[in-house]
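Re: export button greyed out
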Amino acid sequence: MSKEDLTPEEAAKLLPAGAALGWGLVKPPQRGPKREMSIDQIVAKAVEVADKDGIQAVSMNRVASELGFTAMSLYRYIPSKDALLLLMQDAACDIPLPPERPPQEWREGLREYVMGTIDIFRNHPWYGDIPILGIPIGPNNLRIVDWGLRPLRGLELGEYEKMSIVLLVSGYARTCGMLQRDIDRAVQTGTSVEEFSGLNYSAALRALVKPEQFPHLHPLVMSGAYTGENEEENNVGSDVDFGLERILDGIELFLERKKER
Amino acid sequence: MSKEDLTPEEAAKLLPAGAALGWGLVKPPQRGPKREMSIDQIVAKAVEVADKDGIQAVSMNRVASELGFTAMSLYRYIPSKDALLLLMQDAACDIPLPPERPPQEWREGLREYVMGTIDIFRNHPWYGDIPILGIPIGPNNLRIVDWGLRPLRGLELGEYEKMSIVLLVSGYARTCGMLQRDIDRAVQTGTSVEEFSGLNYSAALRALVKPEQFPHLHPLVMSGAYTGENEEENNVGSDVDFGLERILDGIELFLERKKER
DNA sequence: CATTAAATGTTTATACAATAAACAGTATAT
DNA sequence: ATATACTGTTTATTGTATAAACATTTAATG
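Workaround output, generated via the alternate export path:
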């Protein structure tokens, strides 16, 4: 039997605990009372809780309570909390994709991809807190990977090269997403405190980051470039754009060099 | 009073709980019995536990027990577990830096930086699991940032540009570090299982990733490029190198364009 | 149909987790 | 000498994931 001939059920057994659920590979049970909940409902509620109060607020008790059930009832649907977290992660990746662009617009396509995946982090600040235990295997997550590959379809690249580029670009999106999220959080919670005291981390760092010990960082701390002050010349958007354009330039150069050969 | 004139004690109060400890800003207590432990000792033991059994094995009880004390005794040194985690993170950044290179070797310098920070993830697989709550503020962590800025010192870049570049490069290092760690983990634990069954995630994905749903990902899954098979043409090192060279090319292009103007 | 088997959500119980509060002992400042 | 501040411990509280046993409900099977 070749590997391609696995039945969904067989494939499900090879996947980690929660992943099979995400693929809808669990046959609905035949006997017993009708279910009063559904996996989708549980995951949606967990996402709702996390969106509101952060990932640490997501306990089996909290999620079940908000649905009007006991904590233990969730285990009839989901084998463990880790599985629930994986399902939440995949659910956050269930977003509409923009329409396909012509292959020559690959730069714009990759830009859209980065901005779109950054939005996942903004819409679900907890997204980056879920530990990554391996390569993405959830269906929605893989659709995101597929999306990242889409702009590359017309380029003369090997498969490993394509994979490396998506890795590069999506890693960049993750970094920016987390950063953006941190700033959003700071704005939400810290602004008033900062205004009241007139001091914040920057002030502390200015006192601690001595030029002898940190010769290269020191000027950036003093000017506020490190802590991201001066919103005129530095908003997160421009920060994201800068790095992204460098990456795209690097990829373009690679394509040109490859053509020359 | 200008911001630069903060005393260490004043600065300590502005920093989050654990950070002040990392900077050694806590005056040793005058009265009372001699301390039988030290913060460094506690953090070192916590790191040891995490290196051996993962971050989830690090409990106040476990760390204290291994030192021959009770869990509560740790709170005489460290205000909370979150603070301990921050100190662990900073401790992992306490590594020797390579000697400075001449400014024109900035590419090689950045390469060294990326590889060096990736090593932190390899030496401490738990490092990436500690949630990032904001910009780095620990002393060792800031030394790493300073290191990243060092190769840029001779280049004609604005401060925000330098910061963006370090962000770009260190984010890439993080992504690669996590990936490398995942692979190391898989090799440690999963190899035997994979050999026995002859099947792994790849097999499941081959059955699930249909060309209709995943038109661009499908060929990569089939060829094994997605799951990273074929070690000859794809080892992690080459993967890291590929993305890194694109990034460095992009930066170089930026520098050239800036000179032209 | 009657019976069996499987699945439901709940209750109860276990093992840990972080950490607050009260405690007796110890070193220093006054 | 005494008050004060600090030590590490004991005890207790609250919250966590989840295992096991339970009565109940539905469908499959004789």
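The radius of gyration of chain A is 23 Å. The button fix ships in the next patch.
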